[in-house]
Amino acid sequence: MPIINALGGGLVIMVACCFFSMSGNNREIKIVRRPFIPQNPTEKKVIIQKILEPLPVPVRPIANRHENKEISGPADERYGPRMIKAIAAEFRVPAGALYGIWKKESNWLSGGWKPHWIPAHTLTDPQGTCRSHFRQNGEKKCRRHWQALQAICSQKRDGQPVCDPYRVRVSRAGAMGPTQHMPAVLLRCRNGHCRWADHAVDYDGDGTFDPHRLPEALAATARYLRIRYDGSTCRGDWGCAINLYYGHGQERYFYGHGRKKGVLHWWRDWCGQGNCTGKAL
Length: 281
Hints:
- The protein is an alpha+beta fold.
- The protein has helices spanning about 45-50, 75-80, 80-90, 95-105, 140-155, 185, 215-230, 240-245, 250-255, 265-275, and strands at about 1-5, 10-15, 20-25, 25-30, 120, 155, 160, 170, 185-190, 195, 255, 260.
- The protein is built from 10 helices and 12 strands.
- The strands form 6 sheets. The chain has a two-stranded antiparallel ribbon. The protein has a two-stranded antiparallel ribbon with strand order 3-4. A two-stranded antiparallel ribbon has the order 5-8.
């Protein structure tokens, strides 16, 4: 909105992107900074200073979420059946579905990213154009993913950014972390305003959402499945919800195709380990 100052009888008009929070009769104006797109590699240090700022909106935590005691033990317990069952129970989704998606997306990556994945900053070239291996998403979507990834990394944990966007690696589709969340699906930024998707979950209660941390990645996946399962498209069909997680609703993601095993195969593997009760899949 225009901000007008009178100087020497003249008017100077400045345009700022802002929003109001009302408290009684007081108005607070907050400036929302637009995500920064790098122009050339030599500007890296300046770019990081500009983008690593607090988000204009907080991550909405799960109601009454505190430190999760079920996942605070040794690594072999945190990243095993105990953690999957705890998350599945909280969001009321099948644990085998989480296990299968985790396997399909990253082969049970325990956190972060894999060395052979692609550096996220190569989503776009210095001119902001999508590089060839990301063009499947479309030019606009490609830029949105890079901008959203920068904003996700800008969250502060213990006073430090949760990640450096110039170190993060992503899949060829641009997805992040153990369960391969797309940045612009997690955080939707338009005209300088960013809004978290409904399935973004601050599972450990530290005030941030980090898709590179396995518990939060799985929690976001679980919440996404639950929302889809309850929605009008799937109407109580877990296969439908799982296929939509892939992004295109392709049945081969759940059932598999040719030699490629689907989520259902790994769900059955989970049950074969003695983790399921009732009728076999």
